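Good day; I would like, with your permission, to put a structural problem before you. A protein sequence and the structure tokens that stand for its backbone fold form the material at issue. I would ask you to consider whether the tokens describe a fold that such a sequence might reasonably adopt. I set the record out below, with my sincere thanks for your time.
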Amino acid sequence: MRTHLGHPHTRYFFRHCPTSPQNRSFLHLPSPDLFCRRTINSRATSIPDSPPPLASLPVPRSPPPLAIYVHWPYCQSHCTYCNFNKYVVAQPDVERLTSALDRELRTSLAERPPNQVVRSIYFGGGTPSLAPPATLAKLLNTVQHYCRIDPATTEITLEANPTTLETGKLRAFRALGINRLSLGLQALNEPALRQLGRNHSVTEALRALAQCHALFPSGGGGGMGVGVGGVTFDLIYGRPDQSTVSDWVKELNIGLECAGSHMSLYELTWKRGTALFRALEAGKLQRASDDLLSEMYEATIETCAAHRFHHYEVSSFARLEAADSFPGPGPTNPPDLVNNGSTLLANPQTWLSWPHQSSHNSAYWRGLDYVGIGPGAHGRVTDPQTGRRKRTIRIPHPPTWMQQCEELGHGLRLETELTDQEAREELLMFGLRMREGLPLSRLRRYGNTNDLGEMIDMARMQELVESGHLNWGTARVFDDAPPKANLTAEIVETLPVSMTLWPTAKGIALVDSILPRLLHDKTT
């Protein structure tokens, strides 16, 4: 299927690191690998065979909420566009994999501050809906032991394929506390599904979507990335079968009619090593032109807005309904937002409190800590002793990863400490993907600076502000605030204010070209 591998991939640093991958976003960001120093860490970790009693854990000092990504590496088949860390195995050793995932999870969480609030848990892959419910139950119990899960605010997502076999397990997954489902639709026409190597039909996709909406209703909370619950799905545009904008808009409208409160829309990324890329090299397929892709992106924004879906991140769209609480400044009635909301949508505080955002992906873009568990998973964590940001990468090959988990308690392949400059560049890359932007307070916390001029060319920033691509001003931020099921106007007013750099609607579509202009040229 698809996978963030701990980061959104584009989808990953990812998929999405990226967290969805296949689908990448319209923008093509440089891999964070470019900014990380690599070192091998083969340290052995002593961990208990079972978690220590809660009474033995010291009282926490309210660390920021944590996100957790768990990677299930197996799929039923290979999709033609996907080159992520997945394997087709007839009879995987589920018991051994479950034990290794649990052991690595306990090792990682034992290193975190005790009783840390969990903002989100994301089961990605691969196709994690192939896992037995008992596997997910074991892992959720381990998280609950070391951390704090609040059913009202903790988003727990499972990626799934829209097949009859998998939807039959949904009730069991829902009973475990999973409150959000991410369906990999990818396309809503039969020829495209076959070309992408998907093993479901349009009819199966729409039927599964309806069943999932019934079992996973959208949460009513909003803001601070908390929508809790619901169903989201992915669609890919810029595919070889789409020769006109109208081809895509027709398909998008079908998806919008069936959508709940969230969806992700990605431009096709041609990944070397995939069947689709080989067909491209052989001249059997053609890429869409840049002009067509640009027109498709613009049509995506306009079509979604007509259905009250707005992109709070480059490729992530959330719906605002009349019943939603919306504490941001300006008009609060959805019809006013659609028809006369340009001022409101230009305010970063609007996006801070936008309902139904993905808490998990937002954690990536906001530079918050997330633990990546499983073969090939990526993570970003802050060392509680030094305050330095670290990047972690797990061994990708499942048998090798499982063996090291059994021997050392973890499948860690690389652990690197980011320099201040590397941390700042990541914050800038991801912060400008979101309409709420990058608050200076986040640079101070994770990049160890109050001076924006240390990382970007201020003269060029001013040019981009004057050209209508960026804005620079004050806005409220919530990085230190706990998740809330409902972000009321009163809560918003208690949040700290920070100078913030944020993209305009015009700028977010060009962020890949804006970033190189902003960063200081290190070659001079």
Q: What stands out?
A: Residues 1-61, 220-226, 323-342, 480-487 have pLDDT under 50 and may be disordered.
